[in-house]
């Protein structure tokens, strides 16, 4: 809408609409001009010039339907560095100032939604939880940001999570008590120690970093993977869980592509952004499975 | 076209609870959500879930605390329904396996929270929302409920009757983010909006990037009034550099607020001589900003929240997550030093007008959770009341849409509930700019469900094609940043008439510029540029609604403080601010607050803590 048209409208509707005084009209015009001048790319150039420090990020790009992007490539972006800046902040800056087609998942930016697991300088990390200052030699070397390995790339840094979700759901990841207390407002009792035992396992945010880091999962597409086995652990160790479902779940994780595949390389444990001792949990479930088999033997 | 009995839009707490309830009623229910459910921002809720579970407590006390916390702008039928049903909902979660924190006897723990007369906040560490979200998603998986994840609902399929109360919602239009497919979704039982918060209207917020007010904006443009939009909660303890939330649980466990001079500000300056740090959130937020404005802030920006005296053991047991957040997002070790905190946008008390059954004035359209306004939080929400709200009213919306008889609602909705009109003096006209800026083409011709959906699908296809084919124009991120900046600058904790008008002007300019937005990314594959551009339109609509409400309400109540009107005016203002889109010419009006409960009438009292 052009400004002339707008002014005409204001004049003709002056009776019913709140009247814009000449002062107001001038002010609105200034606002329009100021807003129109806002150009984020220009802003970035100025901020880069003013910044005491800058960082360079090299980002994986791919789009199956855009000319020039069907073949994977890397784009380099130069962003001003500020104290406390995370890898996610740098990506957002690059997207909003240089290339709005730069694509990555993110939402909560506080390490709880699990959307932004990425491969940063060769390691699986959450973008929002990775301080740029913590990356080695961050001001002098380029930070390399890639999608999670061992997953199909949909576009840029976005990978297809369907396989991960399928594995999570394969372990019947839901609570199923045999019997619930029948009194009014009666909860099941749970010992503090038992709650403590499952605590770490309940912190999983489904980011997929562990699965991506696991060599076994890379070689065996049917392997349940660390996150799903951890989910099974969460219920197996919960004293409230019903026996039937527990049994059924143990059978699932004990199959060919379950716990026995794990070769305790600890790569999942190392990359987990929530510090879940995944390998320990897998080992404990192996013991649980053995005990369980002895019981029926 | 996809067909289900009931559609739930949004996969956070309210959406999951609604879906489970509708499923319990035997409905074929599907969830359509722009994020996979476990990515929803319910997962970021930290503190807890209030419910009167114990003999020494009562739902009546919980209801009274909630009404008082609302500064007598909550509706009694909503508050009482809420307080009565919250205990069952908490027990439900426990039965679904939620890992609540426990007492020595194995029962669910409860802790004190701001504004509560009894320690009735149940919790799971300082990550209650995460556990609640995952527990409910597990139950959705168990029931085999269909989830269309990473499908973005951009439009409701509503008939075009002149009077919104005659309109019917038959479904919605959604965009498959991964493939670019635009599809109609039909639901004869009902469409439940559960889209969560609108914090992206501000630039310092605890909300996720996805919290763009899609539900309120879509419902508003389809003809549902939005209610008490000016009532925005600013949480007193957010980290200054990111807006990441530090739970009220820290103060619940005994954390103390200090100013730059090392004074315990809540007592030293008489902000809350009885409750101190545990006064209601609005009280604490204003106290902190007053300290900063009077030169007693740290770095002229924030105050300190200290929990060191609680001891490492207790902190690790009950607040461990807080240590991680302070370390990862502010570089502060909460065991060794106090944490910097300042107020940040946190929650919208207002939203889509609904009754206790979750119904809007449009037939077949429901809303629940933060996007809705039932209204139980009134002018200020108590900490720990959001999670039980989304459980109680998510469930009720799901049951009702699934066919259960919940009895007649006491709360009136729709333009017919109007008690008086408002003619506020605005510096610029709010509302639609240009042609095609409306979601309902009110020519009265569209009635048949499939035709309605087809009409809206075509309209959405046209919009997307236009955005993608434009070669040049404005980047939505510039427009969004302008709106966020003016909102945080002018529509914050302390509000003045001049600033509010300034914000309306800025929003008008943003609307005009939005006419020229284009999407640089031409791809139909995972085009977040397109999604964010559509979201920005919603951000503009909710920002304008918030500001209009703030300008209209000439009093100080709860979270809403006006420089020119620094007192609560009960004679004039015990009424809800309503805003109807009115086909592009927004109209403000009021409807009465219902203070008559089942057995008693709540008498407005001074709210002191």
Automatic annotation (TrEMBL), chain A:
Q: Where is this region: Disordered?
A: 1-49
Regions of biased composition (Basic and acidic residues) lie at 26-39
**Quick check: keyword Iron in the entry?**
yes
A GO BP entry is: tricarboxylic acid cycle
The prosthetic group or cofactor this protein requires is: [2Fe-2S] cluster; [3Fe-4S] cluster; [4Fe-4S] cluster
Family to which this protein belongs: Belongs to the succinate dehydrogenase/fumarate reductase iron-sulfur protein family.
What name does the UniProt record give this protein? Succinate dehydrogenase subunit B
* Taxonomic source organism: Halorientalis persicus
TrEMBL record, chain B:
The record places domain FAD-dependent oxidoreductase 2 FAD-binding at 5-387
Q: Which GO terms describe its cellular component?
A: membrane
The UniProt similarity line reads:
Belongs to the FAD-dependent oxidoreductase 2 family. FRD/SDH subfamily.
Cofactors (names): FAD
What membrane topology does the annotation report for this chain?
Peripheral membrane protein
Q: Where in the cell is it found?
A: Membrane
The name under which this protein is listed is succinate dehydrogenase
Q: Provide the alphabetized UniProt keywords.
A: Electron transport, FAD, Flavoprotein, Membrane, Oxidoreductase, Transport
Q: What is its EC number?
A: 1.3.5.1
- Catalytic residues, chain numbering: 281
Taxonomy of origin reads: Archaea, Methanobacteriati, Methanobacteriota, Stenosarchaea group, Halobacteria
Q: Name one GO molecular function term.
A: succinate dehydrogenase (quinone) activity
């Amino acid at each position: 809408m052009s400004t002339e048209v707008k002014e005409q409208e204001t004049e003709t509707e002056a009776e019913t609409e709140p009247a814009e005084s000449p002062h107001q009209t001038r002010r609105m015009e200034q606002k329009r001009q100021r807003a129109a001048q806002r150009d984020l790319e220009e802003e970035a150039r100025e901020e880069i010039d003013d910044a005491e420090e800058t960082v360079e990020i090299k980002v994986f790009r791919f789009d199956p339907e855009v000319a020039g992007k069907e073949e994977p490539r890397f784009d380099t972006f130069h962003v001003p560095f500020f104290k406390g800046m995370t890898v996610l902040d740098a990506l957002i800056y690059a997207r909003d100032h240089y290339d709005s087609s730069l694509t990555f998942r993110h939402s909560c930016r506080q390490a709880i939604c699990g959307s932004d697991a990425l491969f940063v300088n060769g390691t699986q990390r959450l973008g929002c939880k990775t301080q740029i200052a913590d990356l080695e030699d961050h001001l002098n070397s380029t930070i390399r940001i890639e999608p999670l390995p061992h997953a199909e790339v949909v576009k840029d840094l976005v990978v297809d999570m369907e396989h991960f979700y399928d594995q999570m759901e394969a372990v019947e990841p839901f609570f199923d008590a045999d019997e619930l207390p029948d009194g009014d407002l009666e909860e099941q009792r749970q010992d503090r120690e038992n709650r403590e035992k499952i605590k770490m396992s309940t912190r999983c945010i489904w980011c997929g970093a562990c699965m991506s880091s696991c060599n076994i999962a890379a070689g065996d597409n049917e392997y349940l993977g660390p996150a799903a086995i951890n989910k099974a652990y969460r219920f197996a160790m919960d004293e409230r869980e019903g026996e039937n479902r527990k049994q059924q779940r143990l059978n699932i994780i004990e199959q060919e592509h379950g716990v026995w595949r794990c070769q305790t390389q600890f790569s999942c444990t190392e990359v987990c952004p929530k510090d879940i001792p995944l390998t320990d949990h897998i080992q404990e479930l192996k013991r649980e499975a053995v005990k369980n088999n002895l019981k029926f033997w | 076209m996809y067909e289900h009995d009931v559609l739930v839009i949004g996969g956070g707490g309210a959406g999951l609870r609604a879906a489970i309830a509708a499923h319990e009623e035997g409905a074929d229910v599907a969830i359509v959500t722009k994020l996979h459910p476990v990515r929803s921002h319910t997962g970021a809720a930290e503190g807890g879930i209030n419910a009167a579970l114990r003999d020494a407590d009562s739902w009546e006390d919980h209801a009274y605390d909630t009404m008082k916390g609302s500064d007598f702008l909550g509706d009694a039928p909503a508050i009482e329904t809420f307080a009565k049903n919250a205990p069952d909902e908490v027990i439900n979660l426990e039965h679904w396996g939620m890992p609540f924190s426990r007492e020595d006897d194995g029962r669910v723990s409860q802790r004190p929270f701001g504004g509560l007369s009894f320690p009735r906040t149940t919790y799971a560490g300082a990550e209650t929302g995460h556990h609640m979200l995952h527990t409910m998603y597990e139950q959705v998986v168990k029931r085999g409920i269909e989830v269309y994840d990473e499908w973005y609902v951009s439009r409701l399929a509503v008939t075009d009757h002149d009077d919104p109360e005659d309109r019917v919602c038959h479904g919605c239009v959604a965009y498959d983010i991964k493939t670019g497919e635009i599809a109609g979704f039909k639901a004869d039982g009902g469409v439940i909006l559960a889209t969560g918060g609108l914090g992206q209207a501000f630039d310092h917020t605890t909300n996720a990037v996805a919290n763009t007010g899609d539900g309120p904006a879509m419902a508003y443009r389809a003809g549902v009034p939005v209610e008490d939009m000016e009532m925005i909660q600013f949480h007193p303890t957010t980290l200054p550099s990111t807006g990441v939330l530090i739970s009220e649980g820290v103060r619940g466990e005994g954390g103390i607020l200090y100013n730059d001079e090392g004074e315990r500000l809540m007592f030293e300056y008489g902000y809350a001589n009885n409750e101190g740090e545990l006064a209601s959130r609005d009280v604490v937020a204003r106290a902190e900003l007053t300290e900063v404005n009077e030169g007693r802030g740290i770095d002229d920006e924030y105050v300190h929240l200290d929990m060191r005296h609680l001891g490492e053991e207790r902190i690790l047991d009950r607040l461990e997550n807080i240590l991680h957040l302070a370390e990862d997002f502010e570089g502060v070790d909460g065991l060794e030093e106090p944490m910097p905190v300042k107020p940040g946008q946190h929650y919208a008390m207002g939203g889509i007008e609904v009754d206790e059954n979750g119904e809007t004035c449009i037939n077949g359209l429901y809303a629940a959770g933060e996007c809705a306004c039932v209204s139980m939080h009134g002018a200020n929400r108590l900490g720990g009341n959001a999670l039980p709200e989304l459980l109680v009213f998510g469930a009720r919306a799901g049951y009702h849409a699934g066919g259960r008889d919940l009895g007649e609602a006491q709360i009136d909705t729709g333009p017919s509930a109007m008690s008086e009109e408002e003619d506020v003096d605005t510096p610029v006209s709010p509302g639609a700019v240009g042609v095609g800026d409306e979601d309902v083409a009110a020519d009265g011709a569209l009635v048949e469900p499939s035709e309605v959906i087809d009409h809206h699908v075509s309209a959405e296809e046209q919009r997307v094609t236009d955005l993608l084919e434009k070669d040049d124009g404005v980047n939505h991120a510039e427009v969004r940043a302008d709106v966020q900046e003016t909102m945080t600058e002018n529509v914050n904790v302390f509000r003045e008439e001049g600033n509010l008008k300034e914000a309306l002007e800025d929003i008008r300019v943003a609307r005009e510029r939005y006419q020229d937005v284009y999407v640089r990314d031409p791809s139909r594959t995972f085009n977040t540029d397109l999604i964010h551009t559509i979201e920005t339109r919603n951000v503009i609509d909710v920002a304008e609604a918030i500001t209009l409400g703030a300008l209209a309400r000439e009093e100080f109540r709860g979270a809403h403080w006006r420089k020119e009107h620094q007192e609560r005016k009960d004679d004039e203002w015990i009424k809800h601010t309503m805003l109807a889109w009115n086909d592009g010419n927004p109209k403000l009006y009021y409807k009465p607050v219902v203070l008559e409960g089942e057995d008693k009438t709540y008498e407005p009292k001074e709210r002191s803590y």
